[in-house]
């Protein structure tokens, strides 16, 4: 199939953002520098890791909007929740590409499989990969959640609005646990 001469005007940066980290924000900011319109797709991911996400879809959208504002990245970035196939969401918002960040070879292997599948389902949607900023190569939402659940400072991994939400979440869980005892 020959490549189209049309330029990509809008891309989707997808993820569960449970919670959003500085690594996610770096990828979103870089996508914004490359493309005029960026839609961040917050995936419902009901069955993620067999348990579902820590924060509700609405909470993750709210945290992401607040984090983008706090970090000065809100201009030209739209945030929308979605469920179902990523390629369907891309078509719904008129995106010609998907931007994903890569931290390590394990990310590459997984993302390449996803990109190949997406290409077979929607060849008109390009996959664009950006390498992780070395400052954030080790950062993941699961690491942030684990550290926060142990009461560890995560301010170097997430914006302050997210740090506060994590503290509230895990403090509330502790209080509920004490009431049961």
Automatic annotation (TrEMBL):
One MF annotation (Gene Ontology) recorded for this entry: pantetheine-phosphate adenylyltransferase activity
Residues noted as binding substrate in the record, renumbered to the chain: 16, 48, 86, 100
Cofactor: Mg(2+)
Chain positions recorded as ATP binding sites: 16-17, 24, 101-103, 111, 136-142
Ranges annotated as spanning the membrane: none
Parts forming coiled coils: none
Keywords: ATP-binding, Coenzyme A biosynthesis, Cytoplasm, Magnesium, Nucleotide-binding, Nucleotidyltransferase, Transferase
Pathway assigned in UniProt: Cofactor biosynthesis; coenzyme A biosynthesis; CoA from (R)-pantothenate: step 4/5
GO cellular-component term (any): cytoplasm
Alphabetical GO biological process terms: coenzyme A biosynthetic process
Annotated compartments: Cytoplasm
Enzymatic class: transferase
Protein name, as recorded: Phosphopantetheine adenylyltransferase
């Amino acid at each position: 199939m020959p490549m189209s001469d049309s330029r990509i005007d809008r891309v989707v940066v997808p993820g569960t953002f449970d919670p959003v980290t500085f690594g996610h924000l770096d990828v979103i900011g870089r996508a914004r520098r490359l493309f005029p319109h960026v839609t961040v797709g917050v995936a419902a991911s009901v069955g993620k890791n067999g348990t579902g996400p820590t924060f509700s879809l609405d909470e993750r959208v709210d945290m992401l909007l607040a984090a983008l504002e706090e970090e000065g990245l809100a201009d030209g970035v739209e945030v929308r929740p979605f469920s179902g196939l990523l390629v369907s969401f891309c078509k719904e918002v008129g995106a010609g590409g998907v931007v994903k960040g890569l931290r390590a070879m394990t990310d590459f292997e997984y993302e390449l499989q996803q990109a190949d599948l997406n290409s077979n389902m929607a060849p008109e949607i390009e996959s664009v990969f950006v390498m992780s900023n070395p400052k954030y190569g080790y950062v993941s939402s699961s690491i942030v959640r684990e550290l926060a659940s142990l009461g560890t400072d995560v301010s170097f991994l997430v914006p302050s609005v997210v740090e506060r939400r994590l503290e509230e979440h895990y403090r509330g869980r502790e209080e509920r646990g004490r009431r049961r005892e």
